[in-house]
Amino acid sequence: MHARDALWAIGVLAHSAACMASPGDTAIIPGWHLQSALHAPLNLTELSLPAVQDVSSWYRVGSRATVMAGLIANGLYSDTDLFYSNNLQAVDQTIFRSPWLYREELTLIAPRKGQHVFLVTHGITSRADIYFNGHQIASNSTQQGSYGGHRYDITSLIQTGKNAVLIQAHPTNYLRDFAQGFVDWNPYPPDNGTGVWRNVELKQTGSVSISSPRILTDFIGLESDNVTVTIKTDIKNHEAFAVRGVVDGTIQANDDAFRTVAFSRQFNLAPYNSTTLCIDVLLKDPQIWWPAAWGEQPLYTVQANVSIGKNEISDIAPRTQFGIRHITSQVNSHNGTEFNINGSPFHVRGGGYSPDMFLRFDLERLRTIFRYMLDMGLNTVRLEGKQEHPELYDLADRMGMMVMTGWECCDKWEAWEYNEDAKGVKWIENDYSVAEAAMLHEAAMLQAHPSMLVFLLGSDFWPNDRATEVYMNALHRMDWSNPVIASASKRGYPKVLGPSGMKMEGPYDWVPPNYWYQGKLGGAFGFGSEQGAGVGTPEMSSLQQFLSPQDLETLWRKPDAAQWHMGKNDSIFAYRTLYNKALFARYGAPTGLEDYLRKSQMMDYEATRAEFEAFGTRQNASHPATGVVYWMLNSAWPNLHWQLFDYYLRPAGSYFGTKMGARLEHVAYDYEACAVYVINHSLHARGTRIVTVDLIDLHGKSLAHLNITTDTNPTASKEVAVVPDIKKLKDVGFLKLTLQDPVQGTVLSRNVYWLSAKTDRLDWDNSTWFATPVTKYVDFTALNQLREAAVSASMKIFSKHDSTLAEITLENTSDVPAFFLHLMIVDETGVELAPVYWSDNYITLFPQEKTSVTVEFDGKKKWMAGMTGANVGKKVIGNR
Ligand SMILES: *[C@@H]1O[C@H](CO)[C@@H](O)[C@H](O)[C@H]1NC(C)=O
Ligand SMILES: *[C@@H]1O[C@H](CO)[C@@H](O)[C@H](O)[C@H]1NC(C)=O
Ligand SMILES: *[C@@H]1O[C@H](CO)[C@@H](O)[C@H](O)[C@H]1NC(C)=O
Ligand SMILES: *[C@@H]1O[C@H](CO)[C@@H](O)[C@H](O)[C@H]1NC(C)=O
Ligand SMILES: *[C@@H]1O[C@H](CO)[C@@H](O)[C@H](O)[C@H]1NC(C)=O
Ligand SMILES: *[C@@H]1O[C@H](CO)[C@@H](O)[C@H](O)[C@H]1NC(C)=O
Ligand SMILES: *[C@@H]1O[C@H](CO)[C@@H](O)[C@H](O)[C@H]1NC(C)=O
Ligand SMILES: *[C@@H]1O[C@H](CO)[C@@H](O)[C@H](O)[C@H]1NC(C)=O
Ligand SMILES: *[C@@H]1O[C@H](CO)[C@@H](O)[C@H](O)[C@H]1NC(C)=O
Ligand SMILES: *[C@@H]1O[C@H](CO)[C@@H](O)[C@H](O)[C@H]1NC(C)=O
Fold first, then answer.
1. Which ligand is nearest the CA of 691, by number?
2. What residues does the Glycoside hydrolase family 2 immunoglobulin-like beta-sandwich domain cover (predicted)?
3. Cα of 456 from ligand 8 centre, angstroms
4. How far is CA 315 from CA 188, 261, 274, in A?
5. What CATH number is given to the structural domain containing 268?
6. 582 within domain boundaries
7. Protein residue whose Cα sits closest to atom 2 of ligand 1
8. Does the CB atom of residue 619 touch ligand 4 within 6 A?
9. Residue nearest to atom 8 of ligand 3 (CA)
């Protein structure tokens, strides 16, 4: 929004007398009065007349809020309560089965001749009737779907003084409506996400309006001292007479105001006609945009306006940010999708994103989520039909986070005749129009963003031929220049798109670390669009926020009990049975909640590390692994699984396992071949590397030591050694791998495993869509007999802007390993602070070994750093 738009919006908000609005201004309707249609007058025509109805007793909500989000903001519900134990289950849904009304009065001035005003929507869930000053301007057959963006001409209805807009949002049924469902992820919000979840705007123009610019470049990944940027924009004449005019604009490098190039194009438009202008602009010395790990994120901004007559501004296009980069995808000879960015193979290491259960959007929270992702070494976020808001893409552009988006699985979106899994209501005629509007709107929103990797037209199922045509035409209409893929699975595909090259073979529930190395199902080959061992157990500080004492007791005492904070209660993911069976067998029955949690973090760490490492080791194998998306990145509410950090943004075992496994330069262990791999995900790092391999037993006795000199190349991995004597381990051994750069004298990676002579035995033939059973588990129970280790710790504290930075040095002064040291920063009440950025955690130190980690957090209030480990007592390291 422009600064001047904001002023206008404030003018509206203040209900000030006629505020000056000029063509090109956009104002977000700043808030709404919200009420159930059951508690409001029935005559909506009348209710939408200004000043007729007193709605001051209605709930006051912001510019965008689902009904539940609005009611929570008004204190009718508290999310702390709703999220505690199984309280959500008790919410009476009756009121959510009727429509809800959003009403706002606006002080405006009637447009002069030659001026036009539009009401602009970006999606209202699930469908809406819209009224303005006593007239219905949209009906629910058009204004449909969470992504249905439309523009309604309200020029003739506006009066000087008070005006009223009224939206009736109809209740959402995920099986019938194009909404944002949660499938089996979690229980559904009581309102199914109904309401004005995205902004509604007023847009004022003169005779000619201009669309958001769409940006194409001729950059194809080869170095060049210039790039041609093509700016495409739609202009429309709203008058009954022909109009001459000019589009003027600039392209400016965001970090350098002096690098500005102007463009201009004259046009003639017949009465009511519209056209698309294509304007080529040559950019010298283009700065190329890269994903975060590969380089900088230089951005450019296009500004454009259209004027008619004597330099009379008629409309101003939304400022549009773009970056210069080139993305392609292809399906290789093994039916695996390979992405390529700026000429280099881009191996996706991603996570599946969830919005908040009530679709509340918090940019600061998202910034933390993206920072966590980059910290873990991930490079891609998968939004499965959860496109959120434009701010997400601006942020992704700036942070270098690639975005894989597309329509969601199941429910209405995939109610195709050949989809025997979906309970959704099959598509009828009007649904194709709804889908078209959604695709046009989202494509326009996403088109210019350099962070956009791919759009998936389906998730579990591919769209039928007619829907594919609708989607593809809409994408072409919006000059989509990124890959489009039919679905995230291999089940089938529309002819025009061909095979997806993505696999969705599970797992979604617990499998052992060696699963990934056996070349079957979800194993490390091809492109895994959503898969993982299901892990993501929060630590105690978080659990105590949403589980009752009884729930906590159940967690470790009743391994087969249903858990309300797992997947939806009627899905198989409501249980931790598979996971707990493995935990009890591999690590021994828990002796209490703390013991259960420690063992859970070990299981979670093993699981995520192995998945990312396996895909890393196979990135250039003969049957290559081209990408993997962990299922899932985060949760819609406090959850016990399917996440790399919890709802309260506390990282635990699954986070640090991922962070270890997805390191840019790394050394990893292949559980099946007992082999050591050097992994390089970087774009430039190459040269000599030294790998050391150390195997010790539980008493700290050395069983093997290797020191290998090798070399490394960008985006490639290679086997460098086989660990001797693993098969001779008596019970449990510890394997430490380090990777050093001898030139820089740096340790690039340090990675410790706990292993036994045997690996978990998988029963592949009895695999289901969600897991492969284990018939014989490894026995790690000897870990429970580890002798106690002594670890000394010291801390140096630095300040960094408004956060606290500290370095903690740990030294194991004993001759046995110090296993699984969990470091934490807690507040005065012992609750872990979040967000918190640790360079490493859940660390295992070899005898007499010393290492340092760093941590960054908001240390303005009192805090304490502490440590606990499997064979190390609780200890305070420092405080402030
Ligand atoms: C609704 O209100 C409008 C405006 O006051 C009025 O013209 C119309 O007759 C009313 N409709 C019904 C069904 O009462
Ligand atoms: C799941 O929760 C719903 C309420 O959200 C409840 O009506 C239903 O009985 C529960 N089903 C099971 C299998 O527990
Ligand atoms: C949509 O609008 C039509 C016509 O106004 C109305 O009959 C229908 O009940 C509305 N749909 C819903 C879901 O309320
Ligand atoms: C939400 O959608 C589900 C179908 O996915 C439906 O069963 C349920 O009744 C809906 N809830 C409300 C309040 O309409
Ligand atoms: C653009 O770059 C190409 C390749 O570097 C060069 O051949 C061409 O002359 C340049 N064009 C302009 C207008 O600078
Ligand atoms: C319209 O664009 C021209 C050229 O970029 C610029 O000089 C002018 O300030 C713009 N006007 C407005 C109102 O944005
Ligand atoms: C309207 O614009 C289109 C291009 O968008 C053009 O082909 C057509 O001739 C125009 N119509 C008139 C009446 O000028
Ligand atoms: C690739 O997919 C096609 C079509 O589904 C199939 O015919 C072919 O056998 C597959 N090739 C490989 C190597 O799996
Ligand atoms: C590994 O070997 C190199 C020389 O071959 C030596 O310089 C280095 O100190 C050794 N490193 C370790 C950790 O053993
Ligand atoms: C599948 O598991 C069952 C026991 O649960 C076993 O009897 C059967 O042999 C297994 N099937 C295969 C193909 O291994």
1. 9
2. 209-325
3. 20
4. 42, 20, 14
5. 2.60.40.10
6. yes
7. 46
8. no
9. 140
Nearest ligand, CA 286? 5
Tell me how far apart the alpha carbons of residues 84 and 80 are, in angstroms, rounded to a whole number: 6
Same domain, 827 and 756: no
- Provide the number of structural domains found in the chain: 5
- The stretches of 345-424 forming alpha helices (DSSP H) are 363-375, 390-399
Query: Rounded to the nearest whole angstrom, what is the distance from the C-alpha of residue 141 to the centroid of ligand 3?
Result: 8
Name the β-bridge partners of 36. Answer: 100
Does the beta carbon of 711 sit less than 6 angstroms from any atom of ligand 10?
no
Query: Looking at the DSSP assignment, which residues form a beta bridge with residue 283?
Result: 227
Nearest residue (by CA) to ligand 5, atom 4, is 224
Model confidence over 721-735: pLDDT tens digits? 999 999 999 999 999
Q: How far is the CA of 766 from the centre of ligand 10 (A)?
A: 6
- Name which residue sits closest to atom 10 of ligand 10, judged by CA: 766
| pTM, rounded to two decimals | 0.97
Biggest distance spanned by C-alpha atoms of the chain? 91
Task: Report yes or no on 504 lying in a domain.
Answer: no
Return the ligand number nearest the Cα of 220. 5
Q: Are residues 616 and 550 in the same domain?
A: yes
Give the separation between CA 373 and CA 558, rounded to whole angstroms. 33
Whether 555 and 626 map to the same domain: the answer is yes
Backbone phi, then psi, for 130, in 5-degree steps?
Answer: -120, 130
Residues 67-82, buried b or exposed e (16+ Cβ, 10 A)? bbbbbbbeeebebeeb
Residue nearest to atom 7 of ligand 7 (CA): 275
Q: Give the separation between CA 842 and CA 854, rounded to whole angstroms.
A: 13
Verify whether ligand 5 is closer than 6 Å to residue 45 (CB atom). no
CB of 23 closer than 6 angstroms to any ligand 6 atom: no
4 contacts 25 by C-beta, under 8 angstroms: yes
Question: Which region among 19-33, 489-503, 571-585, 640-654 has the lowest average model confidence (pLDDT)?
Answer: 19-33
Residue 568 alpha carbon, nearest atom of ligand 2: 1
Q: 456 and 312 share a domain?
A: no
Closest ligand 9 atom to residue 705 Cα is 14
Query: 332 and 312, same structural domain?
Result: no
The per-residue pLDDT for range 327-386, each reduced to its tens digit, is: 999 999 999 999 999 999 999 999 999 999 999 999 999 999 999 999 999 999 999 999
Domain containing 113 — which CATH number? 2.60.120.260
The pLDDT value given to residue 780: 98
Q: How far apart are the first and last CA of the chain?
A: 42
- 776 and 800 both lie in a single domain: no
CA of 867 to the centre of ligand 3 (A): 60
What are 575-623's pLDDT values in tens digits?
999 999 999 999 999 999 999 999 999 999 999 999 999 999 999 999 9
In-domain check, residue 355: no
Element (H, E) at 485: strand 484-485
Residues 76, 180: one domain? Answer: yes
Q: Which domain holds residue 476?
A: 327-343+385-485
Structure tokens at 152: 């309604």
Q: Which of 768, 785, 802 is the last residue of a domain?
A: 785
pLDDT at position 181 is: 97
Q: Which ligand is nearest to the CA of 767?
A: 10
Interatomic CA distance for residues 79 and 75, integer angstroms: 9
Q: Cβ contacts of residue 583 below 8 Å, gap of 6+?
A: 559, 590, 596, 599, 600, 603
- Which atom of ligand 4 lies at the shortest distance from residue 191's CA? 13
Residues with active-site annotation:
460, 530
Q: Do 185 and 238 fall into the same domain? A: no
698 within some domain: yes
**Cα 179 to averaged position of ligand 2 atoms, centre (Å):** 22
Instruction: Choose the final residue of a domain: 205, 233, 248.
Output: 205
Which mutation among 93, 565, 569 tests ligand 2's pocket best, with the greatest number of atoms within 8 A of CB?
569
State the closest ligand 10 atom to the C-alpha of 763, by its place in the atom list counted from 1: 14
Distances (CA, A) of 209 to 26, 150, 445, 468: 12, 15, 17, 30
